[in-house]
Give the backbone structure.
Amino acid sequence: MIVLGSTGSIGRNSLELARKFGIKVEALSCNKNYKLLNAQIAEFRPKFVCIGDENLKNLITHDKVFCGADGILEMLEICQSKFVINALVGFAGLLPSIKTQSLGKTLALANKESLVVGGKFLKTKEIRAIDSEHFGLKFLLENPTKVANLIITASGGAFYQTPVKALNSVTPQMALKHPNWDMGAKITIDSATMANKLFEIIEAYHLYGVKSVEAVIERTSMVHALINFIDGSTTAHLSRADMKLAIAWAICGRVKEQILKPLNLCELAKIKFKKISLKKYPIFSLKDELLNNPDLGVIINASNEIGVENFLNSRCKFTDISKIVFKSLDKFGEIKPNSVQELCEIDKKVREFAKNELKGN
């Protein structure tokens, strides 16, 4: 298989499962973590590797090294493997997702931005989703009863118990302390703003074709997804907060051995469901608008990425992240990209606008 984003949380877990199941790894890519990439090269001996930062190329212990965004696409072109895990972060994952499918390869997708931004340009029914929520929904959708609506859960992130007035003064270090999951910086901040759950809502729409999708707070992260059926019954998918289960199903199609330790049923007494506060998580108020016009995903994603980047570098407040998303939507309004090229052009314009707006604050 091919693992894009091999040094991140999903990438590391994917390689752990490759080791467990004896799967050969043909290619690896990462952005800047060349030390871990070199360790992965030594163990898995891939034919090809790609490093995002061209300045680090000479530090990679391999004789076939590609570089940058174009390098990933070139690498995918020459790889023989038919299975690709896309664990890249942000908009950068879109073109590799499209390229993977254009080459007739199976796309196991952890890069949610591919669907948020360009879901209509992907063969969504052929995607193997790597996300605990969407894996849970897929598992539950095998029930033949007609679906009424889908429900996914959110932990509430680092600031669930923080008063709204205090959010203006929180720091990146505080935001990165997720209560349950070990994730990369960007997705951890998205969890704290609820942008991550907004993105997962539109992912569920693209993956399963259902517009009636809701989300609730569930602080333990043991309940990943629920489905209400029209007969009045509700089914839930539960497991420990560990992405290896969703990744294993994406890799194998069907898993016949234990991947995680089963839940202690006595712990389920701790489970409670709460509504998502739009006052604390204003970005989630865009849910219905985004479901009604998925093309807005490119504006929301681009401005959110710039907001998160600025917050992590202490150049703006935590609350400015959602504000720049709303400003960008007001600026660019209704859009209808008809090609991937148009999508990329819109993404670039939104980023420039968001950067300038945040710089002026």
